[in-house]
Amino acid sequence: MSAARNLRLGVNIDHVATIRNARGGDHPEPLRAARIAAEAGADGITAHLREDRRHIGDADIARLREQIALPLNFEMAATREMVSIALRHRPHAACIVPERREERTTEGGLDAAGQFNALAPMVRELSVAGIRVSLFIAADREQFDAARALGAPVVEIHTGSYCEAFHSGPGAFEFERMRIVEAAAYGASIGLEVHAGHGLSYDTVKPIAAIPEIRELNIGHFLIGEAIFIGLDASIRKMRQLMDEARAPAVVQPE
């Protein structure tokens, strides 16, 4: 595997299901989107089964596990219902995320430090079942330390503030980028595998993809939105290209 391909791309297909559910029926089909993503260069499929089932449904999870060869990253709230579903389907990974019923999208990182006692038995149960546990957290050392103490091997850095700062000027954008750079280095130094995601676009992906400690990016909403204009295959291939360009070794020009 090339150095560039050491950075994996997980494609989140939630919003294919959002479009389907807006009208009802079975079109567009998330399973078909997952197959296109696999052909276009995705290394994994991410799907968030929310409490209110606003996009991905239980049947989608079952079909993805049965019919897609790529690893499934099952995003889930820290509830007994979701732990039971994860144990039933045994995805490759379970990413525990904060979830509030009224939010439009995940608005921040999980408070792994503050919810330590509640999370500990869930992380243990999932891990014993052979599911790789990831915690979706802010770029904050306290949260990284909590993730390590909980025994979660993976953390995913919430990049929402970084992406929002893109429109706030170079100073704010650089500040948020450096927070992620420093957090990723710290996470790797204490033995965690570091991922990142939330809100990444063609404009914002390269600085994150260039961080050597980050091993995986999970991207969904932007790719599905861009697919309206250029198609899902093309939107994923372009993102994969930008990630690979950011990760490629610098070429030294002769003097």
TrEMBL record:
Site (Transition state stabilizer): 156
Gene3D superfamilies, A to Z: Aldolase class I
GO molecular function terms attached to this record: pyridoxine 5'-phosphate synthase activity
Annotated pathway: Cofactor biosynthesis; pyridoxine 5'-phosphate biosynthesis; pyridoxine 5'-phosphate from D-erythrose 4-phosphate: step 5/5
Any GO CC annotation of this UniProt entry: cytosol
Family matches, as CDD domains: PNPsynthase
Keyword terms: Cytoplasm, Pyridoxine biosynthesis, Transferase
E.C. code: 2.6.99.2
Signal peptide per UniProt: none
Amino acids binding 3-amino-2-oxopropyl phosphate: 12, 23, 199, 220-221
Residues bound to 1-deoxy-D-xylulose 5-phosphate: 14-15, 50, 55, 105
Active-site positions on this chain: 48 (proton acceptor), 75 (proton acceptor), 198 (proton donor)
Gene Ontology process terms (BP): pyridoxine biosynthetic process
EC class (word): transferase
Pfam families cross-referenced by the UniProt entry: PdxJ (PF03740)
Subcellular localization: Cytoplasm
Catalytic activity line of the entry: 3-amino-2-oxopropyl phosphate + 1-deoxy-D-xylulose 5-phosphate = pyridoxine 5'-phosphate + phosphate + 2 H2O + H(+)
InterPro entries: Aldolase_TIM, PyrdxlP_synth_PdxJ, Pyridoxine-5'_phos_synth
Subunit structure, as described in the record: Homooctamer; tetramer of dimers.
HAMAP family: PdxJ
Similarity comment: Belongs to the PNP synthase family.
Biological role: Catalyzes the complicated ring closure reaction between the two acyclic compounds 1-deoxy-D-xylulose-5-phosphate (DXP) and 3-amino-2-oxopropyl phosphate (1-amino-acetone-3-phosphate or AAP) to form pyridoxine 5'-phosphate (PNP) and inorganic phosphate.
Protein's recorded name: Pyridoxine 5'-phosphate synthase
Lineage: Bacteria, Pseudomonadati, Pseudomonadota, Alphaproteobacteria, Hyphomicrobiales
